[in-house]
Write a structure and sequence with these properties.
Pathway: Amino-acid biosynthesis; L-methionine biosynthesis via de novo pathway; L-homocysteine from O-succinyl-L-homoserine: step 1/1. Its cofactor is pyridoxal 5'-phosphate. It is a single chain. With 402 residues, the protein is of the alpha/beta class. The chain folds into two domains: 2-264, 3-Layer(aba) Sandwich (Aspartate Aminotransferase, domain 2); 267-399, Aspartate Aminotransferase, domain 1 (Alpha-Beta Complex). Helices cover 39% and strands 15% of the residues. It has helices at 9-12, 17-23, 49-56, 71-84, 95-104, 121-133, 146-152, 175-184, 234-248, 254-264, 267-286, 303-309, 324-334, 364-370, 386-399, and strands spanning 2-3, 27-28, 88-92, 112-116, 137-141, 157-163, 188-192, 210-214, 228-232, 291-293, 316-320, 339-340, 350-352, 376-380. It is globular. Bound molecules: pyridoxal-5'-phosphate.
Amino acid sequence: MKKTTGTDRSITSQWRPATRAVRAGTWRSEQGETSEALFLTSGYTYDDAATVAARFAGEAEGMTYSRLQNPTVAMLEERIAAMEGSEACRVQATGMAAMTTALLCQLKTGDHVVAGRAAFGSCRWLVDTLLPKFGIEATVIDARDNAAWEAAIRPNTKVFFFETPANPTMDVVDLEFVCGLAKSRGITSVVDNAFATAALQRPLEFGADVVAYSATKLMDGQGRVLAGAVCGTRQWIDEVLLPFQRNTGPNCSPFNAWVVLKGLETLSLRAHAQSRNALEVGRFVESRVPQMLHPGLPSHPQHNLAMKQMDAVGPIFSFVLDGGRAQAHAVLDALQLIDISNNIGDSKSLLCHPASTTHANMGEEARLEMGIEQGMLRINVGLEDPADLIEDLDQAFTKAGL
Ligand SMILES: *Cc1c(COP(=O)(O)O)cnc(C)c1O
């Protein structure tokens, strides 16, 4: 394998973001292929016994087993790290494998975590159900409230864990304040950046320690594969995350890594085009519904904060109808173009009713505490012509009595 200039961080760090997205992390085999090669191999062979012994001893570079290293996976890791501006990155099989790894690799019995209450359903399950099983306590707060973060800190607080914008209420967390507070108290901040990606928001620039991803969403962007990623300093990745990942095996398949790698080449174009479409569709939806949750619109109470820390607010927003679940379901059932789907980040527009899908199993009380009403719908705006999306929503709203 020949490493190209894309693997030299002293060079890639000089490149502008669009160039990093296309070229960072590229290795080439002796064939000189243009597109990144897909290495579907679990193991490796060696010219002689001394070579393999040196690799296992950590004295020579080279692959030994795909749970530890794989060239296609390594290319994706280098590209994500270059886009994120992080020293290192490791990719995992899914976003939830990434979140679980990012938390469990650094926590132990007796530790305490503070987490944002608006979150992806399974992220809340980690905090509410999994961590307590291992004697790790968690305090769940309204992450928009800076004072609540400070008030929740205990002597044994090790991690702050949150997403911004948060799913599906679109709560925005003040990255600079919360990550700065964590740093000043020796707490590790872990930011789930799936809704934005590095194309729209780079939490490390605001002081975050660890950035974790579902790469299933905008990074793949075309609804094909599941994948996840965790980014941090070289030392944290090597000393804290890697021992956990290498021995527990939440690894990403080389095939899925390759798909995401190719998706990253167009991430910035897609993220910005979908953000523009989501603003246009959002302005229409706002004219028709009683409650709008779109941080890109001036009506959102956290609009200024969102614009301070994001280049654009992305393809996803939510809105609430007065007619509860019946009216929300009526809108879904009247759609002719937009699909009923709980996925996000896709280039296809998708509409979802969180209370009966992604957040169905948490119970009405916890849902309401999180701000998820029965009348809430969450949309992922894709790459279709926004005029067609507006026409589809217009007819669906009318049929649903709006
Ligand atoms: C989808 C998602 C996850 C989980 O990712 P998977 O790839 O589905 O495992 C975690 N956090 C957020 C914010 C997500 O949107």
